[in-house]
Amino acid sequence: MNMRPYSPGTVKPPRWAEKLLTWWGHPDTLEEVQGDLLELHDYWVQTVGEKEANRRYGISVLRLLRPFAKPIQSHEYPQPEYRTTFILSPDMLRNYLTIAWRTLAHNKVYTFINVIGLSIGLAAAMLIMLYTKDEVSYDQFHANNPNIYRITTRNITPEGKQESVGGNTGYFQGPKFSEGVPEIQSFVRIRNHRYDIKQGTEVTSQQVLFTDPNFFAVFSFPLLSGNPQTALLQPKSVVISDEMAKKQFGTTDVLGKIIQFKDSYAENSQFEPYTVTGVAQKSPQNSSIKFDVLVPLVVSKEDMENKTNWFNIFLNTFVLLEPKADISRVASKMNQIYLADAKETIKEMATKYGFKSKVEYALQPFTDMHLNKELPADNGLVDSSNPVYSYILSGIALFILVIACINFVNLTVARSLKRAKEIGIRKVVGGGRTQLTLQFLGESFLLCFCAFAFGLILVQLVLPTFNQLSNKALALSYLFDANLVAGYIALFFVTGLLAGFYPALVLSSFNPVQTLYSRFRLSGRNYLQKSLVVLQFAIASFLIIGTLTIHAQFDYLTTKSLGYDDTHVISVEKSGLKHSEAKLFREELLKNPTIVSVALKNGGQWGTIAKINGETQQNFTYETVDPTYLSLFRIPVVKGRNFSADLPTDSTQSVLVNETFVKESGWKNPLGQVVDFWYNPNEKYRVVGVVKDHHFESLNQKIGPQLFTMKPGNSYGKAFIKIKPGSETASLNYIEKTFKKLFPINPYAYTFLDEDNRSKYEAEAKWKQIMLFGAILTIFISCIGLFGLATLSAERRTKEIGIRKVMGASVSSLVQLLSSDFLRLVGFSFLLAFPAAWYAIRAWLENYPYRIDISIWTFVSAAILSILIALLTVSFQSIKAALGNPITSLRSE
Amino acid sequence: MKRAFLGEFEEVVLLTVAVLDEEAYGVTITQELEQKIGRAVGFSTVHTTLQRLEEKGYLSSRMGGATAERGGRRKRFFMVTATGRKALHEVKLVRDELWRALPPQTLQLMGS
């Protein structure tokens, strides 16, 4: 082997091979292999020439590629560089858990505050989600959705303005439209009615729904027994709910049995046997159609031929459309049919009754009905709701949750000083920021998880109360719904992130050198913490103001004088009470000395129209009364006179009107004016007296024009019986006996009028309670948060307080020092809360025609209340700190 | 104890490491083999064999001795372990026994 003259390193091996080796050589032996090959390459160049050397080098590299090799961690091949531990290695996880557990256990107060606050917040949010889910799920269970629609109407004035909308229809719309529009597969009319029902010797009044035979084909109400296709075909058949069956027969196996029904309203109606042809399951809670008794709707031939029935509107008509039918085309076809069929009647209505508005028909999706304010579920359909309730409730829940999260953020950040050393050590031994962030986020999730579990228990506990408040029958079993579970999990994660993200960022950013030299202070002024406290108290005072206003308005509604005396008045209903019967009834009742007076009135609320001042048409409430009515209620007659029993012409020629009626008519001298019921022949009355305005409806309604008549043809429906105070039991006994003697086949029921009047404000009463709960919860959570902060700040300042005391500071000055910071924040929160609250309550009060004025005192008392509560919370800690012995705080160092 | 198994090439490599003593690393071993056996030995083969021998425990290694011509990279020096030496002895014993067992006439035929 002859050596050529050569200087090492001048010829390089092929670059591709070198690269290849660096990428894919075995990582454990890469270093020496690269070196060896380089050396060998040199040697080969000298011995066998450059070309052969490159070839050998290439081949060796190719044969040494180990692209999938992983470095082995062993004492034989120690890694030269330091490698961090896998972030989620089991060892670290165990350590995180231990540390988390220790910090939580060590700071029991904070853990308690955080868990309680968060679980209340989460429970509130969960309840509201349950509520909202239920609201949204109304009527969704029908298999024919989304093809079920309700026929609705729009009244349009001759000028083209939309006057009103309505969800109700009459006998005609269903059958006539489905006959003429091929897209309508079938229709179902639902009419609300009452039947008297015989149960042994007892007679009770029962709501029934009249409906068409294909009710069960369109809607998905499962029958426990009976054939859904034929159950409602025969006129005298009835489908009842299982509850009704149990009540009536004690069993649900009742097919073919007989129930005695009698129309509650029709005169001279008798009990008739109906055959049970089906038993239905109890209607679901989230259904707008809830029925106990279902009877076929029978429309007489005359009714079907009487074209004015286009304008008699008193029931709900649902249609089932073909899938993918064009709604607007169906609606326009419906309107064509109406215009063609009712042509004559439309003219007649315009000339005879002056009804000039144009009626248009439209379709409303069945599932939209529940939350629709304009076209609500009414007339036999139930549970109509206002989406505003969902919004308010969600708002309150969100407030509570946010406040709880703020507590968490504030307390964690404020407490982080104590953990600064831990963070410093973790960083020094190589903990990265991601690792720390993950650790603290994990801790917040752990806490959130506990809160979540507690929250579920809380929901279970308060669900009955909540149901009562929200008028629902919700159950925790509702939770087993994919959407809801997903929602709850999302809620859990959002809360965990919301509460944990900021503290995790702050804590992980600490500088280890500073923390370990104990030079570390939380950066200066802490604006975030302060503004969060401000936000908390702003929300709390907002809710306090809301609660106070609702309370005041409710008090106003329930205690404001209605303009008549409703005390010690018992109201008894008897439909179709003729004037002769009424006379007898009154005479019988007055035989008992405890009964002071008896007055009669029509049942329900009548309204009609008449002409005044010649041609002007006036709408008004039409009250059929007797001469004692006004005196019984002590409603003064301001001009003219009351009806008199001694003047027989009063019942045929005279009417009384109220002050609003006079005002709307523009009468200077109301007495003697003529009211013309022009559509009835020879019905003209003269006004003989003006009645003082009184709230004959609830205070949620404005007093409208009212007209009193004694027209003999109008039957009474209600008797008002004034009794002596304290004689309730005796009087009620006597009234019942008399009623059953005179009207044995009518259901007897009584109410006390003042109670009745109060029950008109049930909605307000509920909102009052809900707001009260919301306000108490927010205040409670804000306060425990403030308590935590106050404790921390007192702890941090123990030395300062000690020195101040040694220098002669008094306890009161120290308490002032420690409390004033927080009180300033609470005071500042009013700046935010007051304008928002003012705006909100003004908007709410505008719903009421009779309302309280927004009083400055509401705000003042809310402010005083918030400050007092905050002061109590904070001063507890401040006083404790100020009373401490300075020796104990100063000795240690 | 189970008898150590050494392949022919493994045996040669192990012996070479022993021969080179303190100076045994990839390059020297390859060159030595080339010169002693007289045929071109692929570096990759030598490298894998060394790895295998180390896995089996016949060799141990340490890093050291970086030089400029290696681009500053260190060498991996190999040493024969006690097990390695024992294995070599056993192989030699087997050979010697076989040689001794050879009938004299055959031995003569082989011309030694």
UniProtKB/TrEMBL annotation, chain A:
<feature type="transmembrane region" description="Helical">
    <location>
        <begin position="445"/>
        <end position="466"/>
    </location>
</feature>
<feature type="domain" description="ABC3 transporter permease C-terminal">
    <location>
        <begin position="396"/>
        <end position="512"/>
    </location>
</feature>
<feature type="transmembrane region" description="Helical">
    <location>
        <begin position="109"/>
        <end position="131"/>
    </location>
</feature>
<keyword id="KW-0812">Transmembrane</keyword>
<feature type="transmembrane region" description="Helical">
    <location>
        <begin position="531"/>
        <end position="552"/>
    </location>
</feature>
<feature type="domain" description="MacB-like periplasmic core">
    <location>
        <begin position="538"/>
        <end position="696"/>
    </location>
</feature>
<feature type="domain" description="ABC3 transporter permease C-terminal">
    <location>
        <begin position="773"/>
        <end position="882"/>
    </location>
</feature>
<feature type="transmembrane region" description="Helical">
    <location>
        <begin position="822"/>
        <end position="842"/>
    </location>
</feature>
<feature type="transmembrane region" description="Helical">
    <location>
        <begin position="854"/>
        <end position="874"/>
    </location>
</feature>
<dbReference type="InterPro" id="IPR025857">
    <property type="entry name" value="MacB_PCD"/>
</dbReference>
<keyword id="KW-0472">Membrane</keyword>
<dbReference type="InterPro" id="IPR003838">
    <property type="entry name" value="ABC3_permease_C"/>
</dbReference>
<dbReference type="InterPro" id="IPR047699">
    <property type="entry name" value="Permease_put_prefix"/>
</dbReference>
<feature type="domain" description="MacB-like periplasmic core">
    <location>
        <begin position="111"/>
        <end position="336"/>
    </location>
</feature>
<dbReference type="Pfam" id="PF12704">
    <property type="entry name" value="MacB_PCD"/>
</dbReference>
<keyword id="KW-1133">Transmembrane helix</keyword>
<protein>
    <submittedName>
        <fullName>ABC transporter permease</fullName>
    </submittedName>
</protein>
<feature type="transmembrane region" description="Helical">
    <location>
        <begin position="486"/>
        <end position="510"/>
    </location>
</feature>
<keyword id="KW-1003">Cell membrane</keyword>
<feature type="transmembrane region" description="Helical">
    <location>
        <begin position="770"/>
        <end position="794"/>
    </location>
</feature>
<dbReference type="InterPro" id="IPR050250">
    <property type="entry name" value="Macrolide_Exporter_MacB"/>
</dbReference>
<dbReference type="Pfam" id="PF02687">
    <property type="entry name" value="FtsX"/>
</dbReference>
TrEMBL record, chain B:
<dbReference type="InterPro" id="IPR005149">
    <property type="entry name" value="Tscrpt_reg_PadR_N"/>
</dbReference>
<dbReference type="InterPro" id="IPR036390">
    <property type="entry name" value="WH_DNA-bd_sf"/>
</dbReference>
<protein>
    <recommendedName>
        <fullName>Transcription regulator PadR N-terminal domain-containing protein</fullName>
    </recommendedName>
</protein>
<dbReference type="InterPro" id="IPR036388">
    <property type="entry name" value="WH-like_DNA-bd_sf"/>
</dbReference>
<feature type="domain" description="Transcription regulator PadR N-terminal">
    <location>
        <begin position="19"/>
        <end position="90"/>
    </location>
</feature>
<dbReference type="Pfam" id="PF03551">
    <property type="entry name" value="PadR"/>
</dbReference>
